[in-house]
């Protein structure tokens, strides 16, 4: 059922054509829709009587089973930005009935634990004796809240964003159509990102559910594992990844397997990296734009054009100095936290150039740019493995009126400061040259390849007070 037609209806949990269709690949074995639905009902029967669940399953198939089981029990899955002790404490404070679902008895989460019931002797399990008619695809009310995603709040308390089933279905169906994975070709989706974050949830789990594609349970991280996982799958294959993971995979792999489609999000992707990925993998790379608040909104083929094209049914308008999005899966108009340049002559507001997040805009001596643009230029320099610009926490001018300067952290073991700065001068305005420039062994990226603001600030502060040998002022 197409969620565009009946916005307030109930929609099926899955869109696969047959109970015998491959739903997932796990440890080299195909699992069918029938297998999945049986596992969902088995796990749903084991869940406690609570209202919210923190799904910490590391196996993507187990995560998907747990998510579906919670939906059937009308329990809301919480997706915080991390599972560190303070974040878990805040989840418990906001939703006292929350519990943790995990395969690991020793999971480091201070919540009541429900162990994911592993199949055991599946062959003799009553659920394995069910016939096809006993495993119909469940219909889920469009208004049911199935997940709550959190962003960092300005007060230190996470901000909650409820996700209703109907809006999620409309969003991922639009994504599937744009990616071309909703045309019955039985794509295999491999993700280097975890399903516990919005991008991973949408593009490695829900897109598979609503397009008939097969998800892959494993989450390969190291370059050799990514290549091995892709090589073992039938075509057509889709790699759902991030610029950091993609750049590392290509840099450390002499050869890579063919991939029909690469999907990238979480940070801007350089044209150079996109072109390399398409040339080496032989497929198409599409970059996805969206946010936790809005869901996914647009794509671009980064190797060919900087212009984004929004999903069908969405409309972008400029109002009071901000860009607003409405229509499609967006249930009420939302202001975007990014600076967008809508293309002239596009009355529907479907094409735009993205200049970066509003909070990342930099103004020095009357010249403007964004941290995202500077990061793209830094990471495009040959020899740079990873890097990021940093805007000081203080205002742009201190009490004496002197102008604050940008700093940068860079992983570039084969470059020294003079060579790196010379290359950077060819790419950015002198006003934005970093002072200081810190060389580090690695940046504190999280599982989705993002750089948490607090983590990079803490690293910069440590470097600022370290010995001169650990950093260089350029």
Overall residue-averaged pLDDT value = 88
Poorly predicted runs of 5 or more residues: 121-132, 394-402
Task: Please give the CATH architecture of the largest domain.
Answer: 3-Layer(aba) Sandwich
Class from secondary-structure proportions: alpha/beta
Tell me the distance between the termini: 59 Å
The largest sheet is: 11 strands, mixed
Question: What is the CATH C-level name of the largest domain?
Answer: Alpha Beta
The CATH superfamily of the largest domain is known as ANL, N-terminal domain
**Percent in helix:** 25-40%
Question: What's the β-strand tally?
Answer: 27
Radius of gyration: 23 Å
Q: How big a fraction of the residues is strand? A: 25-35%
Number of separate domains: 2
The strand line-up of the biggest sheet is 3-2-12-11-13-14-15-16-17-22-21
Task: Explain this structure.
The protein is of the alpha/beta class and 474 residues long. It has two domains: 10-306, ANL, N-terminal domain (Rossmann fold), CATH 3.40.50; 365-470, 2-Layer Sandwich (GMP Synthetase, Chain A, domain 3). Helices cover 26% and strands 27% of the residues. The protein has helices spanning 33-46, 60-72, 85-94, 165-179, 198-211, 223-231, 243-251, 271-281, 371-379, 417-425, 453-464; strands at residues 10-12, 22-26, 29-32, 52-55, 76-79, 98-102, 113-115, 139-141, 145-151, 159-164, 188-191, 214-216, 237-241, 261-264, 284-291, 295-300, 308-310, 314-319, 322-327, 330-335, 338-342, 351-357, 361-364, 367-370, 386-390, 407-411, 437-439. The strands form six sheets. It has an eleven-stranded mixed beta sheet with strand order 3-2-12-11-13-14-15-16-17-22-21. α6 packs across α7 and α7 (243-251) crosses α8 (271-281). It is globular, with a radius of gyration of 23 Å. Residues 121-132 and 394-402 have low confidence and may be disordered.
């Amino acid at each position: 059922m197409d969620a565009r037609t009946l916005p307030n209806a109930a929609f099926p949990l899955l869109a696969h054509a047959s109970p015998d269709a491959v739903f997932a690949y796990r440890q080299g074995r195909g699992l069918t829709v029938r297998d999945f639905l049986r596992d969902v009902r088995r796990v749903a029967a084991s869940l406690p009587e609570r209202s919210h669940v923190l799904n910490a399953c590391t196996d993507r198939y187990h995560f998907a089973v747990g998510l579906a089981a919670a939906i059937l029990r009308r329990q809301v899955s919480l997706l915080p930005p991390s599972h560190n002790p303070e974040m878990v404490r805040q989840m418990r404070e906001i939703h006292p009935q929350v519990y943790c679902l995990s395969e690991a008895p020793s999971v480091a989460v201070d919540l009541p634990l429900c162990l994911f019931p592993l199949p055991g002797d599946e062959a003799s399990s009553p659920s394995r004796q069910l016939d096809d008619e006993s495993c119909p695809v469940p219909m889920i009310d469009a208004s049911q809240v199935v997940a709550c995603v959190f962003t960092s709040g300005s007060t230190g308390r996470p901000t909650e964003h409820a996700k209703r089933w109907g809006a999620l279905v409309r969003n991922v169906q639009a994504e599937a159509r744009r990616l071309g994975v909703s045309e019955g070709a039985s794509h295999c989706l491999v993700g280097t990102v975890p399903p516990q974050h919005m991008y991973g949830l949408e593009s490695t789990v829900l897109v598979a559910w609503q397009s008939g594609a097969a998800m892959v349970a494993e989450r390969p991280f190291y370059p050799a594992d990514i290549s091995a996982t892709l090589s073992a799958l039938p075509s057509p294959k889709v790699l759902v990844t991030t610029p950091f993971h993609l750049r590392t995979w290509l840099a450390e792999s002499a050869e890579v397997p063919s991939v029909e489609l690469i999907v990238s999000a979480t940070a801007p992707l350089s044209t150079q990296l996109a072109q390399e990925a398409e040339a080496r993998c032989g497929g198409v790379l599409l970059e996805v734009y969206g946010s936790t608040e809005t869901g996914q909104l647009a794509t671009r083929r980064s190797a060919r054009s900087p212009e984004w094209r929004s999903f069908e049914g969405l409309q972008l308008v400029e109002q009071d100095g901000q860009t607003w999005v409405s229509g499609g899966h967006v249930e009420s108009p939302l202001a975007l936290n990014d600076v967008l340049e809508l293309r002239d002559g596009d009355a529907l507001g479907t094409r735009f150039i993205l200049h970066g997040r509003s909070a990342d805009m930099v103004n020095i001596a009357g010249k403007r740019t964004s941290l995202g643009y500077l990061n793209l230029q830094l990471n495009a320099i040959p020899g740079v493995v990873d890097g990021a610009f940093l805007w000081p926490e203080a205002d742009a001018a201190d009490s004496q009126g002197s102008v604050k300067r940008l700093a940068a952290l860079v992983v570039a073991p084969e470059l020294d400061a003079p060579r790196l700065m010379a290359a950077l001068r060819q790419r950015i305005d002198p006003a934005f040259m970093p002072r200081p420039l810190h060389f580090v062994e690695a940046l504190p990226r999280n599982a989705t390849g993002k750089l948490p603001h607090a983590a990079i600030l803490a690293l910069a502060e440590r470097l600022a007070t370290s010995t001169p040998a650990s950093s260089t002022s350029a």
